[in-house]
Each structure stands twice: as C-alpha cells, then as structure tokens.
Amino acid sequence: MDIKFKIFRGIKIIAAITFFVTLFGFGTMHLWNWLVPDLFHGPIISFFQAIGLVVLSKILFGGFHRGGGWGGRGHCGHGHNREHWKQRMKDRIAMMTPEQKEKFKSRCGGKYWEFAEEENKAE
Hey, where are the domains in the chain? Predict the structure, then answer.
C-alpha cells in the first residue's frame, strides 16, 4: 500500500474515534445532567466524568475480551460470525471476473488474497 494512503487512513481512524468518543461523552453527559439531578438529586457531571461512565459501562456490561461488547465475534464467542464472514468472502470471490479479482488483489493484497486463494484451493 502507498504510504500516503496509510497515513490518510490512520488520520480517518483517529478522527472517527475522536468523533464517537465526543458523541458518546456529550450524549452521556447531557442525558445524565437532564435526568439524574431531577429524579435522584444526584450531581451534575462534566464531559470527562461522562467519558468515565461510558468506559465503566463498557467494563461492567461489555468487557474488553474478544467476542464481547462492541464489535466482537458474536454470541458467546463461538466464532459463528467469523465462519459466516469466511463463507461470504468465498462466495464473493467466486463470483468475481478475472479483472475484478486482479483489482481486488492489487487493492487488498496480503492476507485477504491469501485467504481467497486458500479457500479456492480447498474446493
């Protein structure tokens, strides 16, 4: 991959993470400050305290282990989604024209193409 593409992709990822952390932080802060003081006579919290609540919620209810919480492997960590992904990828590659396969190989290369070749040989 081109170094400029990697840098641009890294900047996009950092921007997306920053956006979602800010969104969840302000969302949590505003919901807390709207509901808790009136309903339970609790304190008003700051943005960083709201971020702390989001992280605490993730730890308590989602965990940081592979397969749990946001973006994991699915139900109970049995790898069902991984197998589903492999099958979908195999089906997509099988339907590609030679030109599309070459474009895919040049864009994605590496591990994705090795996976596709491995799956096609298994057939």
Answer: 1-64, 79-123
DSSP assignment of 16-69: HHHHHHHHHHHHHHHHHHHHHHHHH------HHHHHHHHHHHIIIII-SSTTSS
Q: Are 47 and 26 in contact (CB under 8 A)?
A: yes
Q: Answer for the pair 58, 69: CB distance below 8 angstroms, yes or no.
A: yes
Q: Which residues contact 28 (CB under 8 A, 6 or more apart)?
A: 50, 51, 53, 54
Per residue in 15-44, pLDDT (tens digit) is 999 999 999 999 999 999 999 999 999 999
